[in-house]
């Protein structure tokens, strides 16, 4: 029996340090719509390049590299095929992640990542130094980047909202407030799952026009623009998906206090964020945590840190439920109840 030798540590580290070209290669393949061009079957690089307006030898090299990670596959005739890792790059794929890939590889993220060391030294987001203002203010002032981010978040959400809704026993009546709900993908899934619920999508004014709720019918939801550091609308169930991870502890306590104040008797608050375990294992949240460090004052947290935040806001964590997605459900009620 033979066993694979351990990788040479030096080559392994060097290869990992060059790993950013993998993200760049994936973005290039998305921009050139290679996955879409392979939807009807395998093709030669020359055929793909002619359609995509690309240089055939360069495209062959790009795809050869991506194939080393299972994104596309080359056969003995030199034709490239879709694979399970390449298919989600298609815009029309059932669980397409195309818009999400374009968002997480966007220029504002790349350039901020060059300052990660400074972010670690200072404890301040790299983004603010490079772009001169906080991330969400920048998005508001730059509609193209704002649309790219909001569409990307909506895409990342779309692949997980059904898993989240299926993991939590939603109430059958009352009002759900999706706080910082973006385009409302989670609220849409919740309202579809429970026809007796009504909803409020609450976000910054520039974000709400892109919402996905129209198909529900106007009687089922309201759009409310505002600032969750000031106040949030009244309701029975508060959803905070990928919101607390954007903010410092003090800022999170303010958001949670505003939810507690606005919440009707018997109300609940659900934080839907990665909940990090104290181990050395890979976790999607440990990767998104690096994005948080680059962009915003927040971070991904562990269970104790969530309990502390809720406690400081007059709320009590009742349970933490895993979901098949990257986020867990941290459920809380008013501390006195
Ligand atoms: C990381 S996104 C999450 C969006 C959505 N919940 C999801 O999971 O797809 C954070 C959201 O918070 C919103 N947001 C940021 N600052 C806000 C504020 N001060 N008041 C209300 N919403 C805010 C952003 O516009 C954005 O939609």
TrEMBL record:
Span of domain O-methyltransferase C-terminal: 114-315
A GO biological-process term: methylation
The keyword RNA-binding is assigned to this record: no
UniProt-annotated catalytic positions: 245
GO molecular function annotation: O-methyltransferase activity; protein dimerization activity
Signal peptide per UniProt: none
Keywords carried by this UniProt record: Methyltransferase, S-adenosyl-L-methionine, Transferase
Pfam family name, one: Methyltransf_2
Domain O-methyltransferase dimerisation, chain residue ranges per copy: 18-87
InterPro entries: COMT-like, COMT_C, COMT_dimerisation, SAM-dependent_MTases_sf, WH-like_DNA-bd_sf, WH_DNA-bd_sf
Keyword field contains Methyltransferase: yes
Family matches, as Gene3D superfamilies: Vaccinia Virus protein VP39, Winged helix-like DNA-binding domain superfamily/Winged helix DNA-binding domain
Descriptive protein name: Uncharacterized protein
